[in-house]
Amino acid sequence: MTVIDNHEVLANDGDFRLSEASARDYFELLKPRVMSLVVFTAFAGLVLAPGHINPVLGLTAILCIAIGAGASGALNMWYDADIDAVMSRTAKRPIPAGRILPKEALAFGLVLSCFSVGILGLAVNWLSAFILAFTIFFYVVVYTMWLKRSTPQNIVIGGAAGAFPPMIGWACVTNSVTIESTVLFLIIFLWTPAHFWALALFKMRDYEAVGVPMLPNVSGERTTKHQIVAYAVLTAICAVLPTFLGFASVGYGVVAAALGAVFIYCSIAVWRMPGGDLKMIPAKKLFGFSIFYLFAVFSALLLDRLVAMLVSYAGGSF
């Protein structure tokens, strides 16, 4: 089987045919690791939002958001199949590996997109469904089809797609977009550049091979390191805003500040890293810690809300 481009796959006999993909291959199209982060942050937005939502509707909302995120991943893999085949970290994905045809991935992604948005709108509310639809559109069309291959700021602007889930979760409960949900959005939005540019530093050759203008390839390592530190500082500041806005406690603020200090420390270690360092150990450490950081911040927010609920419940029982 030979990959012709990112839209068709030609069989050896010259006829187009369906693949023999397994359920695992289709699951891989959903980008499950990315989906787990989307589900977690969306759940955080849903729990942190004031008010209540029926547990069944809440579960339905999270399921729809997860499916929408998976649909975005499938459509991203469909469009990026040509460059995925060249990059070492993506070459074994289902489409470049020949396990799924691009047209199958396209159909799969489109069906899941329509299903997730429609069910969320009918079951929960149409504001959250609209934000989910816009998130899918932004990730697939604005980021994948346009920004990714045209500007070194692709991650900065495109990062908005990954920042919407807590806002969607919040809207599922309140049917509104507020300053609080915007702060949750900003934490992820500002976190994204430092996270992905750390990856781009030790995957520069891959991005160069496929012509994707990531910041290290276009502006150099030095500029990238400066911006990583800047975004780490902005992320750390934004992460303590829930305390100042009153929807998280001082205890959360202390935890967020401590996590932010480590995040900044790791980014400074990258800034101090010698140019042309082939091992890129500080960059790899920052990339790994950045994932932990985001999960830890949102876990702290959830734990803070749980403690507040328990205190309120105990107070009301006396």
Automatic annotation (TrEMBL):
The chain crosses the membrane at residues 34-53, 59-79, 100-120, 126-147, 154-177, 183-202, 228-248, 254-274, 286-303. This is Protoheme IX farnesyltransferase. Its EC number is 2.5.1.141. Pathway: Porphyrin-containing compound metabolism; heme O biosynthesis; heme O from protoheme: step 1/1. PROSITE patterns: UBIA (PS00943). Keywords: Cell membrane, Heme biosynthesis, Membrane, Transferase, Transmembrane, Transmembrane helix. The keyword Hydrolase does not apply. It comes from the Bacteria. It is found in: Cell membrane. It comes from Rhizobium mesosinicum. It catalyses: heme b + (2E,6E)-farnesyl diphosphate + H2O = Fe(II)-heme o + diphosphate. Carbon 2 of the heme B porphyrin ring is defined according to the Fischer nomenclature. Belongs to the UbiA prenyltransferase family. Protoheme IX farnesyltransferase subfamily. InterPro entries: Protohaem_IX_farnesylTrfase, UbiA_prenyltransferase, UbiA_prenylTrfase_CS, UbiA_sf. It is an enzyme of class 2 (transferase). Converts heme B (protoheme IX) to heme O by substitution of the vinyl group on carbon 2 of heme B porphyrin ring with a hydroxyethyl farnesyl side group. It is a multi-pass membrane protein. HAMAP family: CyoE_CtaB (MF_00154).
